C-alpha cells in the first residue's frame, strides 16, 4: 500500500498531466472517488485552494465540473455513534479500518488532506468545484461522519452540494453487488448517473 501523502501526490500529478499535457479544461472534468478514493478526491480538491505543504501547487484556469463522493472515508475516528449502531449491518469494522488507516498513514501525521472532516472551518468555501455529490448508505458505520461532512460542505458551498442517503444500504453496495454477480444498476449507481445527467444537461 502506498503511504500518505504519495496517493495524493500521484492524483495531483495525474491531474496536472490531464489539464496541461492533454489540455482538458477542468470545467469538463468530474473528480470522483469511493471510500478511501473519496477521501483522496476531497484532499485533492482541498489542496488546490489550500495547498498541502509537502506537495507542489497547481493552478487551474477554471472550476471543475463536479466532485462525486461515494461513501468517502472522511475521518479515521470511530467515535461517531453509527460505528456502534451499524456495526452488525456493515461490511466494515473498527478493527479493519484501524489496520488500514495505520498502514496508509505510516509515520506521517494526519491532516485535513488525509482526514477531510478535520479541515478548519471555512476552508471549503474556496473549493473550485461547480457541483458536488455525496452519497452514503444508512447502514454504514461511516454514515454519521458522512452526514456531518455533507452538512459542512453544504454550509460553506451554498447550492452546490447534493447529499443522498440511501436507507438500508451498507458500505460499497455497488462494488459488492457486482462481485456477487448482479449485473444491473444499484440504487447508488442510479443516483450517480442521475446526478451526472442533470449536471451535463445545464
Describe what this molecule looks like in 3D.
With 202 residues, the protein is α/β, with parallel strands linked by helices. 41% of the residues lie in helices and 13% in strands. The chain is built from seven helices and four strands; from the N terminus they run αβαβααβαβαα. It has helices at 6-21, 36-49, 82-85, 94-105, 143-156, 173-179, 187-201; strands spanning 30-34, 64-70, 129-137, 161-166. Strands 1-2-3-4 form a four-stranded parallel beta sheet, with helices on both faces. Helix 2 (36-49) links the parallel strand 1 (30-34) and strand 2. Helix 1 packs across helix 2 (36-49). The protein is globular and about 45 Å long. It starts with 5 loop residues before the first helix and ends with a helix. One of its GO terms (molecular function) is hydrolase activity. Residues 2-172 form the Alpha/beta hydrolase fold-3 domain. This is Alpha/beta-hydrolase. Keywords: Hydrolase.
Fold blueprint:
Layout (H helix, E strand, L loop, with lengths): L5 H16 L8 E5 L1 H14 L14 E7 L11 H4 L8 H12 L23 E9 L5 H14 L4 E6 L6 H7 L7 H15 L1
Parallel strand pairs: 1-2, 2-3, 3-4
Helix pairs in contact: 1-2
Provide the descriptors you would attach to this structure in a database record.
single chain; 202 residues; Rossmann fold; four-stranded parallel beta sheet
The 3D shape can be described as globular
CATH topology: Rossmann fold
The span between the termini is 40 Å
CATH class: Alpha Beta
Share in helix: 40-55%
Given the helix and strand composition, which structural class is it?
A: alpha/beta
What string, H for helix and E for strand, traces the elements in order? HEHEHHEHEHH
Kindly give the count of domains.
1
Return the CATH architecture. Answer: 3-Layer(aba) Sandwich
Strand content: 5-15%
Q: Which oligomerization state do the chains in this entry correspond to? A: single chain
CATH superfamily: Alpha/Beta hydrolase fold, catalytic domain
Amino acid at each position: 500500500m502506498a503511504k500518505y501523502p504519495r496517493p495524493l501526490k500521484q492524483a495531483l500529478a495525474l491531474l496536472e498531466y490531464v489539464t496541461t499535457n492533454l489540455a482538458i479544461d477542468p470545467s469538463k472534468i468530474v473528480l470522483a472517488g469511493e471510500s478511501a478514493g473519496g477521501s483522496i478526491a476531497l484532499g485533492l480538491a482541498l489542496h488546490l485552494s489550500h495547498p498541502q505543504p509537502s506537495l507542489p501547487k497547481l493552478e487551474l484556469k477554471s472550476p471543475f465540473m463536479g466532485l462525486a463522493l461515494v461513501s468517502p472515508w472522511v475521518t479515521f475516528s470511530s467515535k461517531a455513534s453509527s460505528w456502534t449502531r451499524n456495526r452488525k449491518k456493515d461490511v466494515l469494522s473498527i478493527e479493519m479500518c484501524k489496520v488500514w488507516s495505520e498502514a496508509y498513514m505510516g509515520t506521517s501525521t494526519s491532516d485535513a488532506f488525509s482526514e477531510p472532516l478535520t479541515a478548519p472551518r471555512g476552508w471549503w468555501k474556496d473549493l473550485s468545484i461547480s457541483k458536488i455529490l455525496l452519497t452514503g448508505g444508512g447502514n454504514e458505520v461511516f454514515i454519521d461522519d458522512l452526514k456531518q461532512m455533507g452538512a459542512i460542505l453544504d454550509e460553506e458551498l451554498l447550492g452546490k452540494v447534493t447529499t443522498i442517503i440511501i436507507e438500508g444500504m451498507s458500505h460499497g453496495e455497488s462494488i459488492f453487488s457486482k462481485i456477487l454477480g448482479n449485473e444491473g444498476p444499484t440504487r447508488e449507481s442510479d443516483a450517480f448517473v442521475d446526478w451526472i445527467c442533470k449536471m451535463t444537461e445545464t
